[in-house]
Every structure is written in structure tokens, then in C-alpha cells.
Fold:
Amino acid sequence: MSLATPDTDAKPEPSLIDRLEGRRLVVVTGKGGTGKSTVSAALGIAAARRGLRTLLIETGGAQGLARALGRKHGRYRVLPVRDGLHLLSMNPQDALEDFVVRQLKLRALYRLVFRNRVIGPFMDTVPGLPDIIQLGKVWDLAQEHSDTGPHWDLLILDAPATGHGLTMLSSPANLMEVTRSGPFHANARRVHDLISDPAQTAIVITTLPEPLPVNEALQLYEGLGEGQQQVAACIVNQVHPAPFEPLGAWDSARQALEGSTHPQLHELVGLTDHWVKTVQRQRQATQRLLAALPKPAIALPYQPHRQLVLQDLDRLAGHFLQGQGLRP
Amino acid sequence: MTRVLVCCGAGGVGKTTLSAALAVRLALEGRRVAVLTIDPARRLADSLGLHTLGDQPQRIRLDTDCEAGEGCLHALVLDVKATFDRLVRRSATTSAAADRILDNRYYRFTATRLTGTHEYMAMERLHELVESELYDAVVLDTPPTRHALDFLTAPDRLARFLDRRVLKVLALPRTVQGMQRLQQNNGMVVSVLDRLVGSSTIREIAEFVSFLEELTDAVAPRVQSVRDELQSARFYLVTTPVPAAQLEALEFLQELQDRQLPFHGYLVNRCSPRPTTVEPPTLPTQLEAPADLDPAAWRAVLDAITRSHEHYGRLARYDDASLAQLRRAAGPDARLWTIPTLAEDASDLDALERLGRHLPGLDSD
Structure:
């Protein structure tokens, strides 16, 4: 099996977009720095290319998606990105105002309560409230209908990093236990029913082919519990190209080369050695991931570290439109 | 005096590993060091080569004689519930009062499950470590950017939470009379809250808040101490040359400056190894293939060796552009340490020690 070039001998696999068919919501989650925003954006592009009316959502005032797509931060407004693809950058404050205004029908009341000297700070300290309110907005968006059916075919949520991402997903259940009635409780129940339903919601885990990110991806998977069945795929991001194949040739080649007295050769052998070890480390980490996470895995190629442009994302989207699994 | 060193920055830049490496370095310098991670994942344990780390400082075996006054290293992971429980036990007037709080349903959910309390309790745990006077330095590993911002405001938010005026209003409705009085004074507010979360929840929360009122006197000075500790801490901004991480680093720098927290320098992780020459190399023509390699494999290796110069040269140019941008953002006097990518997995003590050599010591300025 080669990581750089997907296995072409196996019979065609369904693509990630095929696997997501019929789902309303995809939650993209993983360790920070594993490329959640890049994966979310590329997935959104892939879905739109497949003809799905798609909305990308980021939370917590994050701007990674807006940045990846070259958009200015929209501040709680749905922005068009390209045909069939829209973007919403959410933040807890606006989501809370939106929620309360909908519930109470009166903006003046929102101001009275949430900008109130006493209650404002109190709401500020209710932990988990921002998560559930933002997920509530996601639920609202999933319900939007036009004459011909749901307004959005697919919502893609770029979730916070693992740990906090898991906390976000469990926030509805927690809030349901804390509140027993009222709109917050009802909101939590609705959200819970949506995000824990395998028929409606899929989870995509992003990781890097590196030891610690793989550990964290596995911990995340473990922590999902029943949610494991909702995991549609694991995306292995930034897979380095191999300098040559087979890598096994390196040991004896290096020995032969180290014998040379050529001045520049020493440095080149050092650089190549770094390259080979990087790829070996990545392959070991990936094998460990594949052995412990029984889900489709998709490799995305290493992108030299520069700001990605839409063209790069389009190319990455291609990996989600074709069956290109890492498994033999 | 305990020196507090805070490693902050975006997710995935290697904060946890560098925090551990920094702690190892300081311990090998002869300091008594504790490293605290508040990350719910167990990356610190991973990088120290341990399976688990707990709430209590655990001694990490280094080649130093701790008892003889040489450096030592302890590591721990924030346990939110345990820290909060200790805070309650220490601050409650009687042990019965402490028990009541620990049994409160809202307290139990708040303390263990919901987002936000991690940040409050990290501050509390940090303060405990400083207060113990057992350490010359405490290295604090923080969660990724967005949450780290909460974490920095935690003392202020906690202070507001414990503001007596807030408590007075919310603590009242444990009784029917209390609820009536609250409604008389804040009728509209209460009825709106009631419609949002339900009155039973308000009572549960109010009960919890009234318990907290008993803690206010004990906790308020602690919040002030934490704030003072942060003002005299050193904030290292961990980043990598990757554009996304870098943009987040610059946002973070802005936050530090806005909050007037002392930025001490960048730790730029995962810098690529770089060729020493600009010109592509010419390989000697007479290189003999080893006997056990077939000619095709040997040619592939030689080709890769030539390309390695171009490959790493390109990465070095990206690195340089990033470093220049970081310097521009922080001003001409900004300190910047570059840490090379290790080819091998960085999850053992030797690797941490090697990384630590690239990091600033306690006396560095």
C-alpha cells in the first residue's frame, strides 16, 4: 500500500460524498492544526460540485473557513462563495441574540435581559451556553424550507478542536439534564435529536499522519461512544510525498553514500535522511490509525506551507468526489 | 519566587510538546519545575513517555539529583473537578457547607461537564502551584487559541461571577418570599429568565450561586493573586511557519497586547532543515551502487538526493517569509527562537531534551 498514490487496483470505492448521501449535517472535528477548516472547505466545494446546496458553518468567532475561502469575515451573515456553496461564520453573542429574539419576539426584551447589569454577567458565566446556542442555530438552518424542499441539502459544521469539540457535541445532552423545561431545554432536545441521529448527521474526523495527532484522533473516536457509528470517514491530511520508492533502499544507499568524500554530498544525504524519516514516521502513524479506527480513511497530499487558494481546495475536493481510500 | 511561563498559541503547533521541552530544559538548568497542561487530551503524558498523568504533580525521572538541590521536573494534568472540589473544601465555612455544595446538581454538572470551567480551574490550579512555593518555575500549557482567550479572561469572569450584587439578586429566590421579592425588584427580568430556562432550573442555579456567595470572601483575593501572577508571567507565543497558524499567532499577539500581558517572545516550532547553499549541487559522477540495490532503486535514490536540495530549499524560503512576518508584527526588539523539526517522533525524554536546547532558559532575555 502506498500513501502517496492511492490504491488503484482495488475495485472502485464509494466516495466520501457518496457516503454522505441523505445526511443533513456533517460535523468536521479533530485536533487543532489538523486542517479542519481546509477539509470543511474542500468538502463543501465537493458537495456543491455534486449539486448539493451546501452551507459551511464555523463557530466561536473563528475565521479559518472564511480565510480558506478568501472571504471577509461575514459576522453572522450567510455569504455566497460560489455556485451552490454558502458560508456562515457564527459567534456566540450574535447566536444568543438571534435565539432569544426568536423566542421572545422582542429585541427590546433581549436588550433588557442580556445587557442587564445583573443578568448579563450571569449568562456570561453559564458554561456551555455558547455551544448549545450555536448548535441551536445549526438546527434552525437544517429546518429552513423553501417551496421545493429543504433550503439546504447539506450543512457542514467546522467544529472546535477535539476535547472542546467533543464537549460541544455533548453540550445538548448536558444542558437537557441541567434544565428541565423551557425554551433552552426544548432547544437542547431538538439539537440533541439532530446531532445524535445517524440518519441525519455524520461525523468526519481530521488528523495528521503524525504520532500525537493519531493518538488524539483515536481518543476522539473512543470518546464518541455511540456516536462512533456516525463517523463517515477519517481524513489523513498533509501526507508527505515519498522521496523515492521503496524506502527500504535507503539504509544501504546511505551507507554507500556516506563513504564518499564529496563536500556537498554529506549535506544532501542529511536532508534526504530527514525526508525519508519523515515519510516513515507518517506511515507508521497511519498504520496505527488504520488498525484501530475501522472507518474509511482518505489521504490528502502534503501542501507546502503557504496560504491555500480556491484552486488548491478544488483539487482537494476531488479526493472527496472519488473513492480514494487508504485501505487496501 | 515562582516564575510563571505560559505557552500559548493556535492548535496543533506543538504547544504541549514545547511546554514539556521547556520544562525539561529548565530542570536540567537546575531549577525545580512543574509543567501543567490543561488540555483534556493526554498529549503531555504522551510526550513525557508516560501513560497517564494525574491531578497531582508526578516526578519525571531525569539525570539530576533532585534531593541534592539539582533540578527536578514534575508534570500534571488539570483535573477540573478535583480542583473545584478542593476550592470548595478549602473555602467553605464548615464541612457540612462544603458537602452541600459538592452535592448540588448544578454544581456537579458545572464542575465536570460543561465548557468554560476548564479555564476557571486552570487559573486556580496554577495559583495552587505558585502558592505551594515548591517550584522555581511553573510552565503552563494552554488550550488552542479561541479557548485560551477565555482562559485569559477567566479571572475577570470569575470575579464578575462572584460579584456580590449579582449574587444578592440571584441568591434570593431559594424561598417563596425571596422569589416574590426578586420579582418585585426585577419582575421583567425574572419572568423572561423563567420563560427561557424554566423556574425549577432558576432555583437550582440560584441555590448553587448562593453557595458560591459563601466562597466569595475566600476566592476574591485569589482571583486578584492570579491576575498579579499573570501580569508578571512570561508569555511565549508558540507557532509554526504554516500560514494558518501564523495568522492565529498574530491574532493572539494582538490579544496579549490588548490585555497588556507580557509577551516574551515567539517559539517557532517545526522549522525545516535548510540547505547551506543556494545553488543546486552537482553530484560526483562516479558513485558506486551498493551491491544489494538494483540499478533502478539506486537511480531513484540518487534522483531524490538531488531533489532534496530543491525540496528543502523551497521549505526554507516559506519559513523565512513567515519569520519575517512574525518579526514585523511584534516590533524590532521581538525575541524569536526557532525550533527545528525532529525527523523522529518527539515522544520521549531524550527528544524533549534535544528540543529544549533550542528553547530559552530562565535567565535569557
About this structure: The first helix of chain A runs from residue 16 to 19. Chain A is about 50% helix and 15% strand. The two ends of chain A are 6 Å apart (CA to CA).
